[in-house]
Amino acid sequence: MDEHLTEGYSEPCKQCGAVSWALSDGCQFFCRNCHNVIEKTQDVVDVSSFILNNKISSISSSSRKKTRREGGREWMVCEGFQFILKLQAEALVGLGVCPQFKTDVLWDFWKRYLQITRQAYTRSPVNSFTNTVYLSSESEPESAFLSEASDQTEPMSASGHSTDGRSSVCSGSLDAACYLSAKERKSRQLMNMPRTLALCHLALLWLREAITLADLLRLVSRRLIPYINVYEEFPEEMQFYGRDAIIFRVETIPSYRKVHGEALQMAEILQLPAFPPVTSDCLLHPALLSLRYLMEVNLPDELHSLVCRVIEKSAMGKESFLTFNPSKPKSTFLFYDLQAAALIIVTMKLLFKLDDHVEWTLSRKAVKKDDQGKKKTSKQGSKMFSLKAWYMTVHPALERARQREELFEARRPWKSKKVLIPAMKHKAVVLKRRRVVEQLQSSFHTLTGSVPEQQSSSPSSFQFLWGQEEDSDGPSLHHKRLNCMLEKRGKEKWLVNQAYWHTDLKRCHKKDCRDHYSELKHSLPRMYVWLLGLFSFLLRVSEAQVHKEVVEVERRLLLRKAVPEEDNHKHRKRKGRKTSSSF
Amino acid sequence: MDDIEAELGISRSVGNEDFSDSSEDERVARKIRPPILLHSSTAQARAKESGFHESSRLCLKAIRDAMLHHHWQEAAQYLSAYSQTLEDTTVNKQSLACEIIWRLGTEILQHHPNSRLEDFNALYEQMKNSGVKNYAKICLEHSFHLLLNGHIYDAKRQLSVAASWRYGKQSVPQSLDLKLIHAYCGFLDYVIWHMKKSSVSEAEDNSSNREMHSYFRQASVTLQEIIAQPGVWDPFVLSYVDMLEFYNDQEEALKVLQNYAYNKDYPSNPNAHVYLYQFLKRHEAPPAKLISILKVLHHLVPSHELMQEYCYLLVNSVVPGHLEESLPVVFNLLDYPSWKNDLDTWNCLLTVMTVFKRKGLQHLIANEWKQRKDFWLTMHYRAYHGRKDSELNRELLLVKAKVAKLLGEHGIYYNKFSTEVWGPYNVEDKKRKIV
């Protein structure tokens, strides 16, 4: 049987001493006497048999035999992406998004995409394969539309298969080969894995849901939204192997910037009209979003009114500014979450200056004032908000959270339970490695005595927990007062801190000028950099991006001359000495 | 395992000197880097790193931290998470992963409280077969582990399987490893022979005797082959000589030892001379021969412990001229800090000096002392030494003081310490016989 494959190996078996080896299904050597399996695997896979099969199949007309194994059917890569989108939509609906997300918005976007890129719903589809798909008995609604599309196409002759037979041997889907050339991918605007998230983000934005892009990526990271190894859940009929792996396998969770860029591109491709307006009652509006972030970082609620003043002053609360309109050429696609964070930072700068001196002086004054004002010792301690106390509470919690995040990332399993075989010639090696990994893991698990599961975290929009509970990160400072930051001069209250600093607000003229944060970082005050670090950890973006957004807000706030100053505002700010730390 | 690693390192690094071809030497030296430095470059985050690689880098960092803090349970958990890197599609990272998991895995298993021999065996078997670069090394380590835990036969079996392994063109490091495997095969045969010898000594069982002899034959063939090649083969030489002595083949043993010690191709090895000396002493060779061997040893390692014996041999020798050589030998010995507080050495010095005084050779003493006076006074005769010796080792104090007196150093502070205890011993001292 297998003598020709095992004839080179003539070592005696360790258990029984006989020399009679055969090859198992998993390409492992086993002894015929005692069925002892050893680690040696077949070294050389005979590839010629495959080529022979190809030649034979091109002669016969019924060439679908080799692709239809055990009831599998032909499928296109876009079907796979459709399935993935379905799973992601279901997960999001499960997390609390309204059901129209799945049935209406995302589905419409997807149909529109297929139509515009001429992969379906069109009279002249781009794919040149036969699209006569054999529907299995349980025809799902998602596959029904493909048959609709195929009815409208011209039936191609079977000879079309012979040229493409090669590709279908190397992949489960029919058109995986098209996805591998970058030129084709770009010209036909083909789908890829980060674009699925981008589509979800656009759909969420359309519905003005509270899940921002940062939240979406955090949910992906926590595996609450299927993204890594989602192809495990493809149905059995969709045979998945070979080059499909390259399209559907992910080894990175895309960064915020990447998904944002893809979303912008998709909005262009889809030629979407203006999005529904972002009004002040929807959760994406900076006023409400900043309230959420204030609670997240344990800042007092009184700060919110100041943030709203800043929003007003910089005219960032206007619908026309906040709403995304892809049809207009100059419309900007905003980073809502970064914006809210930047507004908070600017407000803190207004209050405390954050130049490594003023904020600590003010905290000391706050503590002193509190000591004077107290007549009896209250259990809660001081009532005044002191930046120092806030820092001493938040910083250890932040370091612990960073550590936890790092360890979570270290333990993350990337490889799926289903083994991916990119090419047949590697099959034996890949299977063997998978076996070795599984054996190693099981032996170490028995050693440690437990199987440490990835903790399935309950989905929560907050990453820190402030309060008196046992597992909270620290005491809550939400109720503290900001009275010491304001002083009465005559009838109005003014900010105690009268100075403000900012970096260079001039826009760079060069197109490819990215950001100057890395040059500036060493000259910025440490408190400011720490604050940037806090928000960059919360939103899973880089500090440079947060800083860029802060500069944007400052531009709108400080450089706009046309905003008329309103009369009866209580907190007037004055442009003090501007210490510009630019070069 | 640490000393095995060191031994492996030493054997391997000295094995490098086998090749007279220097270019090969350089290539080999470049290839065999110490394992610690292999992965230090990957500690920083790279800009275009995939999430998978980032996870594996963070995992490795977590393993390292856990191991340095001796949290073995945690380290084992992170290592099982790290094992997913074996499936990395990047080729060079995947081969690194094999080595990392092998080395870290064995380290963790060694220290973990729940680890058993089966875990070690399983790990070694799996890592042997993933990736071909490390097969020979892992086989060696596996057999050493079995050897240390007393499973001699298993170790032998492992090595014999490994010895017949070939993959592709044999690279230079591979051939070194295979040579070592061959050598340890022979060594293990010797160990088994030794076990059989001690068990068979009473009974006159023919079959076990025959087995013992067959092991002897196997071992001797292998070891002869190995020892014939230039290199440092201390344990192998000793075992071969032991076997030959048992079978009363003195000439062969002597030949082997002499070849090992005097052959110019072999790297210079003081142990070779020590073994030869011990062998000859066992077989009651004439002192002249012993002296000649020790002379070479003295040139190589003046601070060797056998130098005392050498000194006594020289003093008692009838050959003229040997006596004069004994003084520099013992002075050289005491130049080294390891013999500072050794009573026997100081006694030896005292003896030699008294003999010289008797024979009227004080000028030689004076010569030697002139060279050494300045640093000996600070090395042996400071007030600190006096205090320490008077507290810890009175006899040493006395002997040193006598030596100082003989050298003519009466005024040193050290003597004051000895005069405190001098009194009661004074009479005895004068009656002391000089050997």
From TrEMBL, chain A:
Compositional bias ranges of the Polar residues kind: 149-165
Protein localization: Nucleus, Nucleolus
GO biological process, one term: nucleolar large rRNA transcription by RNA polymerase I
Main subcellular location: nucleus
Molecular-function annotations in GO: RNA polymerase I core promoter sequence-specific DNA binding; zinc ion binding
Pfam families in UniProt: Rrn7_cyclin_C (PF20645), Rrn7_cyclin_N (PF20644), Zn_ribbon_RRN7 (PF11781)
GO cellular component, one term: RNA polymerase I core factor complex
Residue span, RRN7-type domain: 8-39
InterPro entries for the chain: Rrn7_cyclin_C (IPR048538), Rrn7_cyclin_N (IPR048540), TAF1B/Rrn7 (IPR033599), TF_Rrn7_Zf (IPR021752)
Domain Rrn7/TAF1B C-terminal cyclin: 253-447
Region Disordered, residue ranges: 146-165
This protein's record includes keyword Nucleotide-binding: no
Domain Rrn7/TAF1B N-terminal cyclin: 81-235
Keywords per UniProt: DNA-binding, Metal-binding, Nucleus, Transcription, Transcription regulation, Zinc, Zinc-finger
The keyword Hydrolase is annotated on this UniProt entry: no
Family (UniProt): Belongs to the RRN7/TAF1B family.
PANTHER family referenced in this protein's UniProt entry, alphabetically: TATA BOX-BINDING PROTEIN-ASSOCIATED FACTOR RNA POLYMERASE I SUBUNIT B
Protein name per its UniProtKB record: TATA box-binding protein-associated factor RNA polymerase I subunit B
Organism: Astyanax mexicanus
UniProtKB/TrEMBL annotation, chain B:
Protein name: TATA box-binding protein-associated factor RNA polymerase I subunit A
Matches recorded under InterPro entries: SL1/TIF-IB_Component, TAF1A
Annotated GO biological process: transcription by RNA polymerase I
Ranges that cross the membrane: none
GO CC aspect terms: RNA polymerase I transcription regulator complex
Region (Disordered): 8-27
One Pfam family, short name: TAF1_subA
